[in-house]
Write a structure and sequence with these properties.
This is Sieve element occlusion C-terminal domain-containing protein. InterPro entries: SEO_C, SEOA. Residues 1-171 form the Sieve element occlusion C-terminal domain. It comes from Fraxinus pennsylvanica. This protein is mostly helical and 172 residues long. The protein has two domains: 1-76 and 140-172, no CATH class; 78-136, no CATH class. It is built from five helices and two strands. The chain has helices spanning 11-22, 31-54, 63-76, 96-104, 119-128, and strands spanning 81-86, 90-95. A two-stranded antiparallel ribbon has the order 1-2. The two termini are 23 Å apart.
Length: 172
C-alpha cells in the first residue's frame, strides 16, 4: 500500500506521511524518495492521458481513458479516495465517502469474503451498489499538456462535463 495523496503534494501529505511513519501503520518510502514516486505516479497518468488524446482516443471508446479520467478526477477532488487491488487483475476504487459507507456497512457483505481472493471482487460489488443522491466531479488538467479536449464526460454518470478555465492558488 502506498499513500499517493495529490499530484502536487503539500504540507498535508507530509503530515500524513509522518503519522503513518510515527504510528507504524505501514512500511513507507523515506520522505525524500516519496515525493519523487508520487510525482512519477501522477506524471505517468497525465502522460498516458495526453498520449491517448493525441492518438484520437476518447473516454467513450477506450477503457484505459475511462480509468485515467477517473483517477485524474480523484486528484482534482478535495475528497479522499482509494484503490484496492490483489494480483494483476482484481481492482476496485472509489471516492472516500462511498468507500467509508461500504466499509461501515461491511457486516452486510463480509460473509461473502470466505477467502482472501474474494475481498476485492466483493468490495467492488458493494461499491457499485452505492449511488449517492448527488455527485459533482471536477477534472483539473494541467495547462502545459498542449491539448485540452473540447468534450469530457463524467466518469460516474457519463454526462458531458461543463468546461471552465480555472486559476488556482491552493495552500492545502
Amino acid at each position: 500500500m502506498i499513500y499517493v495523496g495529490k499530484s502536487n503534494p503539500k504540507d498535508k501529505v507530509r503530515r500524513c506521511h509522518e503519522i503513518i511513519n510515527r504510528e507504524q501503520l505501514s512500511h513507507i518510502f523515506p520522505l525524500k524518495d516519496y515525493y519523487d514516486y508520487v510525482w512519477f505516479f501522477w506524471v505517468r497518468l497525465t502522460s498516458m492521458w495526453t498520449s491517448k488524446l493525441q492518438h484520437g482516443m476518447t473516454v467513450e471508446s477506450d477503457k484505459i481513458m475511462q480509468e485515467l479520467l477517473t483517477m485524474l478526477t480523484y486528484d482534482s477532488s478535495e475528497q479522499g479516495w482509494a484503490v484496492f487491488s490483489r494480483g494483476l487483475y482484481d481492482m476496485t476504487k472509489g471516492k472516500g465517502d462511498i468507500l467509508l459507507t461500504v466499509l461501515d456497512n461491511s457486516k452486510q457483505w463480509e460473509d461473502k469474503v470466505d477467502y482472501p481472493d474474494k475481498f476485492v471482487p466483493v468490495m467492488n460489488e458493494a461499491i457499485s451498489g452505492v449511488h449517492p443522491e448527488h455527485h459533482c466531479n471536477r477534472l483539473i488538467l494541467p495547462g502545459q499538456t498542449g491539448h485540452i479536449p473540447e468534450r469530457v464526460v463524467c466518469s460516474e454518470c457519463g454526462r458531458t462535463m461543463d468546461k471552465y478555465v480555472m486559476y488556482r492558488c491552493c495552500t492545502d
